[in-house]
Write a structure and sequence with these properties.
Elements: H1 14-29, H2 36-43, H3 47-53, H4 57-61, H5 65-77, H6 85-102, H7 104-116, H8 118-142, H9 149-173, H10 180-195, H11 226-239
């Protein structure tokens, strides 16, 4: 046996093969013109294999959202009591961004396809609503007992989703060029500035104490990114 003979390339996992076959046909024929039978024929598997992974043809367009939603829910469930709630849900939204940014080519193709197919736009809205509900449920627990706690939770969750999606769509419209993380950070900074509670250290200020010599103190963990330190300082200084 020749030691230089190359080993055959490993086949992609079944789920990935079905997604790849589906998008190839969607791009060549169009979404409406492609059937599940077409997809499984190209992937070289049976219909039963398709429905083992995807309940419907719509689900093959969004193969990663169930896992991402589970990751977000687990991330929020692992929150500590001293985590600032608004910052925590903003960090949870960044998990969704990571899913899109991991495969820009696929994400841009899906964005273009979804824009052309009304049924997929409706499906996507239902997915977005599930993310928003997960954020709102976490915030409702954290804001329980506060005046208008439920209202505040729902408003903040909606604002986080709106800010994240605005930046995400801008990145997708650019064909995935540029820094998606920076765009989303910029958008979420507006939410944090509006709703997050700044960290204050020292005695409370008394009426009439304000003046040009006021001192603003910010405490942050050593591992906190610089952009967040600046963000927190701006929010704190604005309310000082």
């Amino acid at each position: 046996m020749s030691s230089s003979s190359a080993a055959p390339a490993a086949k992609p996992p079944m789920r990935e093969a079905l997604v790849a076959a589906a998008f190839r046909l969607f791009l060549e024929r169009g979404y409406e013109q492609t059937t599940v039978d077409d997809i499984v024929a190209l992937a070289g598997v049976g219909r039963r294999s398709f429905f083992r992974y995807f309940p419907s043809k719509e689900d093959v367009v969004f193969p990663d959202h169930e896992g991402c939603l589970a990751d977000m829910t687990a991330f929020l469930a692992a929150s500590a009591e001293d985590d600032e709630p608004v910052r925590r849900v903003c960090d949870a939204a960044r998990l969704v961004l990571g899913m899109y940014a991991e495969n820009p080519t696929f994400s841009v193709q899906r964005y273009r396809l979804t824009k052309r197919v009304p049924g997929l736009r409706a499906y996507e809205l239902s997915v977005v609503w599930r993310y928003e509900r997960a954020l709102a449920e976490y915030l409702r627990r954290r804001f329980a007992g506060r005046p208008d706690g439920t209202l505040r939770a729902d408003v903040v969750a909606a604002a986080v989703v709106a800010a994240h999606n605005n930046a995400l769509r801008s990145w997708l419209r650019s064909d995935g060029r540029g820094d998606a993380g920076a765009e989303v950070d910029h958008a979420l900074a507006h939410v944090q500035a509006a709703f997050a509670q700044p960290v204050r250290v020292g005695p409370a200020a008394r009426p009439g104490d304000e003046g040009p010599d006021d001192v603003v103190v910010l405490v942050a963990r050593r591992a906190t990114p610089l952009w967040r330190v600046v963000q927190e300082f701006e929010a704190l200084a604005g309310h000082a």
